[in-house]
Write a structure and sequence with these properties.
- The structure is a single chain.
- With 168 residues, the chain is α/β, with parallel strands linked by helices.
- The protein contains 5 helices and 6 strands.
- 40% of the residues lie in helices and 19% in strands.
- Helix 4 (121-131) packs parallel to helix 5.
- The longest helix is centred in the first third of the chain and has 19 residues, at 27-45.
Length: 168
Amino acid sequence: MRGRQSACSFTGHRPAKLPWGNDEQDPRCLALKRRIRDAVESAIAEGMEHFICGMADGCDLYFAEIVLALKEQYPHITLEAAIPCPTQADAWPEAQRMRYRALLARCDYETLVQQNYTPNCMQRRNRYMVDHSSLLIAAHSGLPGGTRYTIAYAMRSGIGIVDIPIDE
């Protein structure tokens, strides 16, 4: 694994906080995915080689898919799955669990933050990602929750933040 200086993590909302929910064909979702891809390509141009994803449903999975697609063009980049606990995807619909497992299988690294679910395991995962990065790409609408917490933690940590607003 590469050092923090060449590492970039990602935070973004789950479908419940996205105006289009699970409809990934919505033009706003497609536009967001393009903006995430542009941000990742800019990060690569700035020297980022290692990308860390929290693997939550929604924007995290978009990010993971984008990084994996870009590996064809930039074979030197790596993707790390930062998993908060082993049961992260257990309650998801079957199609999303299959997507999650397929993405995990393609990651270069997996980091399990803790062995069991606790109410703060997602925050621990988010702090892990920020603590191991020099850049955070954040897709958010400003709503309270884990994404806003992660952005605030990154600001306190002094790492760079690329803000990608989510259009209503």
